[in-house]
């Protein structure tokens, strides 16, 4: 294979590898972000539960105040019973007393209902806090694993950067400029193999003459359809 073509194939593979490092890092970070999102959702649920409990307690307090007012009212009605002078006033007081007693019954039932809700919410809160603790422990473990994985990826990337840098030191400037022009639009597929007599960039079949020149690998050959640099991979026994 032509030395310049050989170098172009190497450079293209280095660039392709480098392009893959960032997605690998993002993929590792995504593993952690999934756990963080779950933890944040649990925190939101905890805050909502606290707010619900506070609201229930506030309603209970209002009912207790109302209950105290109703009991005071009953005491007042009881006192007035001794002061009434006619049957009409007695009936009016009895009606007022019945209404007050009904309201007391309702207030007591409401307090009982609110206590049940508060107890259920307190239990729910404990479960959420336990889940959050569990999730935060998982986050710590995942964070260590992700940090280690990212360190390994960065080490691997540094090696590829070093290899690429060493290759560029002996690279022909005209060939490099030519490659970079194609890479502007072709990205990591600037240099592609020919498979089944087709360009592996645009997947168009190339003619016999061009294919013959690619096989010889004596010159740098461009795809007549898309302009990418073509090469023929060395076929192994396995292939």
Automatic annotation (TrEMBL):
Residues covered by the CT398-like coiled coil hairpin domain: 28-184
Signal peptide (from-to): none
Keywords, alphabetical: Coiled coil
Domain of life from the UniProt record: Bacteria
Domain C4-type zinc ribbon positions: 198-230
InterPro entries: CT398_CC_hairpin, Oxidative_Scav/Glycosyltrans, Zf-RING_7
Coiled coil location: 67-170
Protein name as it appears in the record: Zinc ribbon domain-containing protein (DUF164 domain)
């Amino acid at each position: 294979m032509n030395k310049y073509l050989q170098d172009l194939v190497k450079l293209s593979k280095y660039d392709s590898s480098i392009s893959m490092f960032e997605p690998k890092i993002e993929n590792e970070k995504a593993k952690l972000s999934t756990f963080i999102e779950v933890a944040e959702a649990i925190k939101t649920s905890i805050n909502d539960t606290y707010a619900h409990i506070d609201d229930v307690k506030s309603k209970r307090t209002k009912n207790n105040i109302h209950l105290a007012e109703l009991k005071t009212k009953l005491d007042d009605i009881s006192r007035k019973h001794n002061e009434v002078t006619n049957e009409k006033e007695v009936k009016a007081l009895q009606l007022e007393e019945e209404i007050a007693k009904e309201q007391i019954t309702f207030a007591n039932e409401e307090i009982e209902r609110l206590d049940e809700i508060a107890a259920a919410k307190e239990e729910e809160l404990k479960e959420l806090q336990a889940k959050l603790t569990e999730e935060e422990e998982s986050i710590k473990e995942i964070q260590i694993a992700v940090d280690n994985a990212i360190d390994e990826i960065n080490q691997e990337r540094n090696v590829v950067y070093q290899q690429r840098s060493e290759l560029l030191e002996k690279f022909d400037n005209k060939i490099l400029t030519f490659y970079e022009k194609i890479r502007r639009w072709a990205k990591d597929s600037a240099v592609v193999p020919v498979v089944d007599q087709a360009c592996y960039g645009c997947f168009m079949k190339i003619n016999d003459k061009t294919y013959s020149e690619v096989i010889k690998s004596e010159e740098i050959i461009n795809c007549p359809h898309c302009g990418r640099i073509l090469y023929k991979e060395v076929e192994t026994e396995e292939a």
